[in-house]
Specification:
- The chain is an alpha/beta fold and 1021 residues long.
- It is 62% helix and 10% strand.
- Helix 13 packs across helix 15, helix 32 runs parallel beside helix 34 and helix 39 crosses helix 40.
């Protein structure tokens, strides 16, 4: 925001508190007039240091001074400026104390606190400035905790200055008004720690740019003429590193001068020239005789004035004299051999210095000089000609590194920066994934990658954006004018990608602004902050981190208003046309939820907030339910829980949300989340009998799924009968009945219960419940007495219904595959399973993939590939165990044991059965029947026909309780072999005949063939 800004703004600021120690005692000792004079001199000592470093005194509180940096325009080095200002104030107060001590008999000292963070700033030039936020309070408390002559800084400040100053940690401070201890550091020196050699890390992705610099150098030497290269780039992109690598590769005889422009201070205009002269060392004295007396005097005066840290007086050389002296110096040096002059950070340069540099190109004739001008792109606003190429001038801009280059760079940084243990840990995959995430987040900016990597290494992956990055981006944004910043804030609210149409919507929203959006977008494109998108009329932020910083620094009340305007636009479009990318349900839920949460933070008394909350919650729940339909379980859980968390206690939707979150958690194999969801619903609706009953029913369903205890349904029938209109309660009750019937092997009864549940779901008008139950009915068609033809017809109908929803289609495909295999069409069945498996992998649906494994195992078993079937059953069982579904997992382990037996691996099958018996655990009715049949066959093969017969009798008794025709056929076929092994041909024939009748009622031709072969082999015997 520019200096004309007056509206309240969120800003990153650095606040400094300086307080005089012992002021009460001074007031007691000194005459008021004398005290006033001393305090005036004290204030001047402090405020002069603050203003020299670019700070603004916000207010005086007694003898304490509060100053802020970043109020009008942020700079990336505001934190460093702040501690330097505090240090300068401390030194000047001590100098004042030394002056006063002999004549006044007093000593003065101060203590300082510095804090950085977000604040609301109201700043109108010429009027009172206000900085509001916890950052102000923290700085004041740090100052109170500091000792005499100490500067204490907070965590954010320490992060931003640790490369430029020496800090030592102090024990966490318990500060007044702060809920938890505050981390703080004491500034011990403004000299940085030993610098790291960044050049040890290879320069990545800049081969072409290095070659352009080398080509320009060769041209300057060959033509003996001043040649200019202008290197442009956004902060952190690697301009200085590129130039350093170029300089390091120059021949030894080349003289290299480097000067860096400063953004603040006294006498900074020619500071780069002073640095160049000082870098010559003894060579400076050698070249002096070659200069005219006026030039020697001008350069000596320049260096002397800078060394004194004082502005030059009128007796100092003028601009023209200095310019002539610099030209003469460069000409003299270039006369001895090639000269390379590097001007760093020219975006900070005063216009006087830029004029001097412009003059060099025409003055330095017939000498080999290469001028390298390094700056940010905004320099072109005042020097557009510097971007133009000529025979002896070239300009280029460093672009962001691509994804591959960033991954290589981050890997090099990780190896160099992080402790070895963090790079070579046993979990290398995790380290590589971390590097990839950092590379992606850094937006092609090497400095951002380094800062992000260090922050993540220190604080973990959830660490906030490093304040150094925020400061760099914020400083760049603060150079925009009001209109540009306003457009950018509104664009950031839309997202990383935005369209002109969307921008027009938020520009028309409250507060409406008469902006020339087209012209402002053009200016933002020229600053490289945004870029054109692929679609007509679309744009995107050049850096994701820039968008995030703009968004964070936009006032929350404005964001809320703009998000709501975007939501209203999406709702309006959805009402008159088919959903588009920008009008998707997900975007609607995002904008409504964000508007709601922002309003809660800054306008909790807004009368429209309750209706907005309801609208946002419904959008989130709707999107979560759609995610649940498509089996995107992580997204479903997150969206449903976010919608639930918006709803107040007592809202009726808490009941339905509880069962849906429970379903999603169960489908993911989670054991805690489903129960937690039910607990939340009961807390939110403590006096609602329907909620208590539904949650109790749902807990019984969980008991069935997880197999932790016996479950029952009958105790719920009477309460439900007293409330016949509770469609959701009845729906879940009938589903519970179905699960219990399935566990007992009564597929027909389960089918009837699901049909009752389906009727209730339709009465409820809940498409989610309806589709869920239709899917369950379809899956049950594999096991129920429903003939294959009817089952396949159901699959065909549901394939149409779920044709556009692969997640819902999956169980239909699995069912169809098994039914077709039972009918004998194995090739089609396997092809369908391949399709289903592809969907499960694409959609990351683990349990659906397990269902595919199970049915593939059944198909392989039907065609006699028993080794393949065994392996598939074992894999599926392991998956179910991991998901906490132990009872169906044990059933599949019994299937695998049966396949061992069918392979003729009798001993292995016996050992497997013994292991399963020793492990114990509840079994489904299906599992118990398989256990009895397999155990009977093993006993018969061992010659223990008495035990085999007893097991066969128990199996026959249990068969009477199941109506699954294929299960009955499979068990009866096994029992027929048990009877044959004992020589009981009559019982064997009757068992085989009953098996065939069961298969025939289902239409299961393929398993019937096995029984017919058994009968035929017996006849031939």
């Amino acid at each position: 925001m520019n200096a004309g800004a007056s509206r309240p703004a969120r800003r990153n600021v650095v606040v400094v508190f300086i307080d005089l120690i012992g002021s009460t005692e001074l007031a007691e000792r000194l005459d008021p007039e004398l005290l006033r004079d001393i305090l005036d001199r004290y204030y001047q000592a402090c405020t002069s240091g603050i203003s020299e470093h670019g700070g603004v005194v916000e207010k005086y509180i007694g003898d304490a001074i509060m100053a802020a940096f970043g109020i009008v325009g942020g700079r990336e080095d505001d934190a460093l400026r702040a501690i330097r200002a505090a240090h300068t104030a401390l030194l000047r107060v001590r100098a004042l104390s030394d002056d006063l001590a002999p004549t006044h008999g007093i000593r003065l000292d101060v203590h300082c606190g510095v804090s950085a963070g977000e604040a609301v700033v109201i700043a109108t030039p010429g009027a009172h400035m206000r900085v509001i936020g916890d950052t102000v309070n923290t700085a004041a408390r740090l100052q109170s905790a500091a000792g005499a002559g100490e500067i204490l800084v907070g965590d954010e400040v320490a992060r931003m200055v640790r490369a430029q100053a020496r800090l030592e940690p102090v024990p966490p401070l318990t500060l007044k008004g702060k809920s938890s201890p505050v981390r703080a550091w004491r500034v011990t020196s403004l000299e940085p720690e030993a610098a790291r050699d960044d050049d040890q890390i290879p320069l990545v992705g800049r081969t072409a740019e290095i070659e352009r610099l080398r080509t320009a150098y060769r041209k300057a030497v060959r033509d003996r003429r001043c040649t200019v290269v202008t290197v442009l780039g956004v902060p952190g992109i690697g301009k200085s590193r590129l130039v350093r690598d170029f300089v390091h590769g120059l021949p030894a005889e080349v003289t290299v001068l480097t000067g860096r422009c400063r953004s603040y201070g006294v006498g900074i205009t020619f500071r780069p020239v002073v640095e160049m002269v000082e870098s010559l060392g003894d060579d400076w004295h050698g070249v002096l005789p070659e200069l005219a007396a006026a030039s020697r005097s001008a350069l000596r005066g320049l260096v002397a004035a800078d060394a004194a840290h004082a502005p030059r007086t009128g007796e100092d050389p003028g601009v023209e004299e200095i310019s002539r002296a610099v030209r003469a110096l460069f000409e003299a040096l270039a006369g001895r051999g090639p000269l390379v002059v590097v001007w760093e950070d020219l975006h900070w340069a005063e216009q006087t210095l830029l004029d001097l540099i412009d003059g060099l190109t025409s003055w330095l004739a017939d000498v080999p000089v290469l001028l390298v001008r390094v700056a940010r792109p905004e320099l072109l606003e005042t020097r557009p000609a510097w971007a133009m190429g000529t025979d002896h001038a070239v300009a280029f801009e460093l672009r962001a590194l691509d994804a591959a280059q960033m991954e290589l760079l981050v890997a090099e940084l990780a190896a160099n920066r992080l402790p070895e243990a963090e790079v070579t840990a046993h979990d290398m995959a995790a380290g590589q994934a971390l590097c990839r995430r950092v590379a992606e987040s850094a937006d092609g900016n090497p400095l951002f990658a380094e800062l992000l990597l260090e922050t993540v290494a220190e604080e973990g992956e959830d660490a906030p954006l490093p304040p150094t990055i925020q400061a760099l981006i914020g400083a760049r944004l603060d150079r925009l004018d009001d209109g540009e910043r306003d457009v950018l804030e509104r664009a950031a609210t839309i997202g990383h990608v935005f369209t002109r149409d969307q921008l027009d919507v938020v520009c028309a929203a409250d507060p409406p602004v008469p902006l020339d959006a087209g012209g402002l977008l053009g200016r933002l494109l020229r600053t490289r902050i945004i870029r054109r998108g692929g679609a007509p009329g679309s744009f995107h932020f050049a850096q994701t981190l820039t968008r995030d910083t703009v968004y964070a620094m936009t006032r929350k009340d404005l964001r809320a208003t703009w998000h709501l305007a975007l939501a209203d636009r999406i709702s309006g479009r959805a009402a008159v046309s088919s959903p588009s990318e920008e009008g998707s349900h997900g975007d609607l839920a995002h904008h409504l939820e964000t508007a709601c949460l922002l309003k809660r933070e800054v306008r909790p008394d807004d009368p429209l907030l309750p209706s907005l909350t309801e609208r946002a919650a419904r959008a989130l729940v709707g999107e979560g339910t759609r995610a649940l339909h498509r089996k995107d379980l992580p997204a479903a859980i997150a969206l449903l829980e976010r919608g639930r968390d918006l709803l107040p206690a007592g809202h009726a939707d808490h009941r339905a949300l509880a069962v849906r979150i429970c379903d999603a958690g169960l489908a993911r194999g989670e054991s805690d989340r489903p129960y937690a969801a039910l607990d939340v619903a009961e807390r939110m609706l403590p006096d609602d009998p329907r909620t208590r009953l539904t949650c109790a029913i749902q807990r019984e369903m969980l008991a069935v799924r997880f197999g932790g205890r016996p479950a029952s349904a009958e105790r719920f029938r009477a309460p439900l009968a007293a409330d016949p209109g509770d469609d959701l309660g009845w729906c879940r009750f009938h589903h519970l009945e179905a699960l219990l019937h399935i566990g007992e092997g009564r597929s027909g009864a389960a089918e009837a219960a699901l049909l009752d549940a389906l009727a209730r779901a339709r009465s409820l008008g809940d498409r989610y419940e309806e589709n869920r139950l239709l899917s369950g009915l379809c899956e049950l068609a594999q096991w129920s007495p429903t003939p294959l033809a009817e089952g396949l017809s159901l699959c065909a109908g549901l394939s149409v219904r779920f044709g556009a929803d692969r997640a819902m289609l999956l169980p239909v495909l699995v069912t169809e595959a098994r039914l077709r295999a039972l009918a004998g069409d194995v090739d089609t069945a396997l092809a369908i399973l391949d399709t289903a498996d592809g969907h499960a992998v694409d959609l990351h649906l683990g349990l659906a993939a397990t269902a595919v494994l199970q049915v593939r195992g059944l198909v392989e078993s039907l065609v006699g590939r028993h080794d393949a079937a065994e392996a598939l059953f074992r894999r599926a069982a392991a998956d179910l165990h991991r998901a906490g579904q132990s009872e169906p997992a044990r059933t599949l382990e019994l299937y695998a044991a049966r396949e061992l037996l069918r392979q003729g691996r009798h001993s292995e099958a016996a050992r497997e059965m013994e292991r399963l018996r020793d492990e114990g655990g509840r079994l489904q009715a299906r599992g118990e029947l398989i256990r009895l049949a397999v155990s009977a066959r093993i006993a018969a093969l061992d010659g223990d026909h008495g035990t085999a017969g007893a097991l066969a009798v128990r199996a026959e008794e249990l068969l009477a309780r199941t109506d699954d025709p294929c299960l009955r056929g499979d068990v009866l076929a096994d029992l027929a072999e048990v009877h044959l092994a004992a020589g009981r041909t009559g019982p064997a024939a009757r068992a085989a005949a009953r098996a065939l009748r069961g298969y025939a009622t289902k239409g299961a031709e393929l398993p019937a063939r096995r029984v017919r072969r058994l009968i035929e082999e017996e006849r031939r015997a």
